[in-house]
Every structure is written in structure tokens, then in C-alpha cells.
Amino acid sequence: MRIVLLCMIGMPWWLDACNSIEPVPPVPPVDTTSHDFTWTVEFLGDGNSSVLSGVALVSDSLAFAVGEIFLRDSTGQFDLTRYNLAVWNGFRWDIRRLRYNGSPPAIKFAHAMSVSDVWLDPWFHWNGQEFVQLPIDPVFYGIGWNRMWGSGNTLYVGGEGGSIAYSSDHGVTWQKLSSGTTLPMRDIWGGLNPQTGEREVLAVSCDPFTSADRRILSITGTTVTAISDNGISTALGGVWFSPGSAYFVTGGRIYRKSRVEEGAWSDALQNQGISIQYMDAVRGTAPNDVFAAGANGDLLHYNGSTWKNFRDQTGLTNGVGEYFALAVKGDLVIAVGEDLGRGVVAIGRRVR
């Protein structure tokens, strides 16, 4: 026998409870950001193995790109004394030399913590007015350093041979941490988890030129611990995350998790119809506003639901050109790299 309960006006009080049953709320739409960007690509340097390795986006009218830039002199010959800095004022790039003890070193990374706190390798610090030459701590001797992340007085730098340097006093003193690997540190990122109140720092290490071996490392204070790379089958080049909600690592594919303690990483590009070769860098502003860049001029954006490749606007020479670093701030993104011996910059602006 089947009993049917009807809710109608005028029904007895013991049936009027039906009227208080709340309907099941609809599934909220996915919160997405716009894929609508305009891009400009320009080249810095005349050749001779010019390359841009790092970029810091300080504001809408100030960015620093670093690396090695070679220009021709008035006779048409290459000036063999490198330039190592390009300064963007919101409209154009000004190529400069920063000298350390009289010579301009090749600079690998740029990291902006605020408008008056920008680091270019362990060599130079921007204080909002000028670059100050820094004393080099012995920790940094004889090692190539690739990427930095910092917050407040806490700084981490990752380098070759599995090297990690740590400072708790904004670079006044440094110590080297044991990473448990000799693979080069390719990238490092951190942030404060709003759910736990704890700082999270992740680094990725690999040598994509020799193998797909890789490590994903979690750093707490001075303790470095390898975490699971289950689900990942390629070398890794970049890491970025929004603590407690979205974690991304890039390499031969783009992988993601919602929480770092989850079991396996998933392929973020699955069923997206996007093919890539290698993605060196990933940065974002939120879980629904993530960018990745790499070989051949691939420059991707994730809007919280779908990925879009801007290669038709940012593409470089197939098999040669590559973006190595990214910086994102608000509706502005800058990628830097190399194409046929020239430094290359792609600037994207979101159309509102």
C-alpha cells in the first residue's frame, strides 16, 4: 500500500509542517573569472644568448625583469658586458646594468614582497627608491639560486643541487636547510592557510633535461619533508597555491589538488582539449584565476572552470622559444623567457 501526503492550504495543523519543508537549494554556479585578455609580446636584447629568467610585478606601473641581455654597440658589434635588468614603467622597458663589486652578474630571479621590498637574487634589494648591493652570505657561495619566496621576515631561496637557504630576519643572516635531494630546486611558493592559521611553503625540484625524477617538498620553519607525488608522471617546473583550497604544480602536465593532504594529484588539463609540451611556471591570484607558461609560447589561464591557451597571441618559435617565469597582480600578468637568443616578454591585460 502506498501512502501519499499532500500539503494544502487548510490542512490540519499536523500536516501544516509540510509547508515548512525547505526546497533543496540549487547547485551554485561555478565562480569564474574572465578569459578576455589582450596581449603584447616584445623582445629585449639583440641576440647572443640573451635570456630573461625572472620577473617581479611590483605595481601597475613598475615591474623588473632579470637575466642576461646583450645589445649591439654603435659599430654593430655585440657589447660583451651583459645587461641584467629591464625596468617597466607601465609603457616601455628600460634596459640597465646592476653592478656588484664592479661587474654585472647574471640575475636568475626577482621576487616582490611589497612595493618597497623586492629581491633580485641574493645580490640586490629594492627599497622603493633604489637597488642596494647586499653582502653575500657564505651560504650562497658557489651555488646557482633559482627562485625565492618570502613573507614578512621569513625568506626561502631554492637553488641547484637541492639547496635551500632560509632566513628568519629578512636576509640579515641565512642558514642552509637539508632538503633530502640533490635535484635542482625549480620553484618555491608559500602562503598562510586561513583554515589552520599556519604558514605553508612548498618547493618542487627536478632536472627535466635528464629525467622525470622529481620531489615536492613541504617546508615548515627549518624542516623540509617530501610529500606525495602520486598521480604525477612528469618532471616539474613550477608550484603555486591558494592555501587550503587549490594547489597546482606544472611540468609536462598541470596537476592540482584541493588540499595538500589529499591522496593523488589530478591532471588539471584532462578533457580540456589542450596539448602542451612543458610548463615552466605557474602563478595566480585566486583558485579561479591561475596562469601557467612554458615551451613554444604556451600561456594558459584557468578561470575556475576551464583552461584557455593564448598561444595564438603569445606563441614563440616551436621547439626553441620558452617562457621561464610569471608574475601576476590583479588584472595584469607578465611572462618572461627566451626566443632565438633574445629575451622575450609577454604582457597580458584583462579586459573589463
Describe it.
The chain is mostly beta strands. The chain is built from two helices and 28 strands. The strands form seven sheets. The protein has a four-stranded antiparallel sheet with strand order 1-28-27-26, with no helix packed on it. The radius of gyration is 24 Å and the shape is globular.
Please write out the topology:
Layout: H1 13-16, E1 37-44, E2 51-59, E3 62-69, E4 83-88, E5 93-96, E6 110-114, E7 117-120, E8 124-126, E9 131-133, E10 145-151, E11 154-159, E12 164-167, E13 175-177, E14 185-192, E15 199-206, E16 214-220, E17 223-227, E18 236-242, E19 246-251, E20 254-257, E21 266-267, E22 279-286, E23 289-294, E24 299-302, E25 307-309, H2 311-314, E26 322-329, E27 332-339, E28 342-350
Antiparallel strand pairs: 1-28, 2-3, 3-4, 4-5, 6-7, 7-8, 8-9, 10-11, 11-12, 12-13, 14-15, 15-16, 16-17, 18-19, 19-20, 20-21, 22-23, 23-24, 24-25, 26-27, 27-28
Features:
disordered N terminus, 28 strands, globular, four-stranded antiparallel sheet, 2 helices, 352 residues, mainly beta
Strands in their spatial order, largest beta sheet? 1-28-27-26
- What oligomeric assembly is this protein in? single chain
Distance between the termini: 61 Å
Helix content: under 10%
What class, by secondary structure content?
A: mainly beta
Shape: globular
Largest sheet: 4 strands, antiparallel
- Average pLDDT rating: 91
The number of distinct β-strands equals 28
Percent strand: over 45%
